[in-house]
Specification:
By secondary structure, this protein is of the alpha/beta class. The chain has 2 domains: 145 residues, Crotonobetainyl-coa:carnitine coa-transferase, domain 1 (Rossmann fold); 38 residues, no CATH class. Helix content is 32%, strand content 22%. It has a 6-stranded parallel beta sheet, covered by helices on one side. The chain has a two-stranded antiparallel ribbon with strand order 6-7. It has a two-stranded antiparallel sheet with strand order 8-9. Helix 1 links the parallel strand 1 and strand 2. Helix 1 packs across helix 8.
């Protein structure tokens, strides 16, 4: 398979990110998914009855999973060791979280200068500039994306009601991170392979 031998460290959760690393795994990459002690929220979201959410199982197929508490120094050291021997790291935390943990690109690239670091974040083009999750209240992000893309009009049933979207508007953008990470690894064309993928930019 085209990505056999590629080692991917997956620090993502829910949809944006897991979909990206799912495609890398489907193409043969060895993906290690890191979950917090309480697990990926999508394991149980929307479940009716017992068991795991099929949505979670599908997005995280072909991956190996370990539990790591990245807030603890022991957990941070595990991430550093894994990053040191990985080709690609994908994360979808809010901008600045990984830096505060001491696990951002600037810190990890010292341990592994060849590491391709793909950061997927939500942003919206408002008032002439890209605003990130640092500036936009999390609960408003989806509404802003739909407003910017006119999705409200597309999903309107009548003048009094709207239908909920089948999936969040920004979640399809993570496939760009998949392509970017694969291309960057194939050519190692960047002196500083730090990919920042905003899920929506107007």
């Amino acid at each position: 398979m085209p990505l056999t031998g590629l080692k991917v460290l997956d620090l993502t959760r829910v949809v944006s990110g897991p979909f990206c690393t799912m495609m890398l795994a489907d193409l043969g990459a060895d993906v290690i998914k890191i979950e917090a002690p309480d697990g990926d929220p999508s394991r149980v979201t929307g479940i009716m009855g017992k068991g795991e959410n099929p949505y979670f199982v599908n997005l995280n197929r072909n991956k190996r999973t370990i539990t790591v508490d990245m807030k603890q120094e022991e957990g941070k050291e595990i991430i550093r060791r894994l990053a040191k021997r990985s080709d690609v790291l994908v994360e979808n935390f809010r901008p600045g979280v990984m830096d505060r943990l001491g696990l951002g690109y600037n810190q990890l690239s010292i341990l592994n200068p060849a590491l391709i670091y793909a950061a997927i974040s939500t942003g919206a083009l408002l008032f002439g500039r890209v605003m990130t999750m640092l500036e936009i209240p999390q609960k408003l992000t989806e509404l802003i994306i739909e407003w910017e893309t006119d999705a409200f009009h597309v999903r309107r049933i009548d003048e009094h009601s709207d239908a909920a979207p089948g999936m969040h508007s920004g979640d399809g953008f993570d496939h760009h991170a998949h392509h970017a990470a694969g291309c960057a690894d194939h050519g190692r064309a960047f002196d500083r392979p730090h990919l920042v993928c905003h899920r929506a930019d107007g």
